[in-house]
């Protein structure tokens, strides 16, 4: 699959980041199993712990519109290093992954790497454990 469109969506979302405290802008975009795309940015808060990461903003938008399985998620943070999803976002991705999710770590639409989610989050606690 060509991830350029997804990365461009994440880059566009990054422009909307609300990050007055860290100044670290992040954008994310997901493509769901129904092929719909959703994007999101990080949204910080004066009470720092209330901050929402870009990945979760995008995922929650998708899930609240009925799409439940993430085929791939593109993440664009700074342009020097690839930005990996934080631990909380990995747990949220786990919830909406069917085991085949790809994580696209991008600096821009021409410079990105693809990781399988299972590579980034082995041994996850998941709904399978709640039996
Ligand atoms: N952040 C994200 O949005 N996604 C990540 O994967 C890493 C961190 C945000 C949270 C906070 O607004 C800022 O980046 C600095 O941690």
From TrEMBL:
What catalytic reaction does the record list? Answer: 2'-deoxycytidine + H2O + H(+) = 2'-deoxyuridine + NH4(+); cytidine + H2O + H(+) = uridine + NH4(+)
Q: One short Pfam family name for this protein?
A: dCMP_cyt_deam_1
Which residues of the sequence carry a binding annotation for Zn(2+)? Answer: 53, 86, 89
Q: Per the UniProt record, which EC number(s) apply here? A: 3.5.4.5
Source taxon at top rank: Bacteria
The record lists the membrane-crossing segments as none
List the GO biological process terms: nucleobase-containing small molecule metabolic process; pyrimidine-containing compound metabolic process
Checking CDD domains in the record gives:
cytidine_deaminase
Identify the catalytic residues: 55 (proton donor)
Record InterPro entries: APOBEC/CMP_deaminase_Zn-bd (IPR016192), CMP_dCMP_dom (IPR002125), Cyt/Deoxycyt_deaminase (IPR050202), Cyt_deam_tetra (IPR006262), Cytidine_deaminase-like (IPR016193)
The coenzyme or cofactor needed here is:
Zn(2+)
Q: Which UniProt keywords apply?
A: Hydrolase, Metal-binding, Zinc
Q: Name one GO cellular component term.
A: cytosol
Q: Outline the extent of the CMP/dCMP-type deaminase domain.
A: 1-120
The GO terms describing molecular function are: cytidine deaminase activity; identical protein binding; zinc ion binding
Positions bound to substrate: 42-48
What PROSITE patterns does the annotation carry? CYT_DCMP_DEAMINASES_1, CYT_DCMP_DEAMINASES_2
The text of the family note is: Belongs to the cytidine and deoxycytidylate deaminase family.
Q: What does this protein do?
A: This enzyme scavenges exogenous and endogenous cytidine and 2'-deoxycytidine for UMP synthesis.
* Record's protein name: Cytidine deaminase
């Amino acid at each position: 699959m060509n991830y350029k469109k997804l990365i461009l969506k994440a880059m566009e979302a990054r422009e909307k980041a609300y990050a007055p405290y860290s100044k670290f802008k992040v954008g994310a975009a997901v493509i769901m199993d129904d092929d719909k795309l959703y994007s999101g940015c990080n949204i910080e808060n004066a009470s720092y712990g209330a901050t929402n990461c870009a990945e979760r903003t995008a995922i929650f938008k998708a899930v609240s519109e009925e799409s439940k399985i993430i085929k791939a998620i593109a993440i664009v943070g700074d342009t020097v290093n690839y930005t990996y999803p934080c631990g909380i976002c990995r747990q949220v991705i786990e919830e909406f992954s069917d085991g085949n999710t790809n994580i696209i770590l991008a600096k821009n639409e021409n410079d990105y790497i693809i990781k399988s989610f299972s590579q980034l989050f082995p041994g996850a606690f998941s709904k399978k454990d709640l039996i």
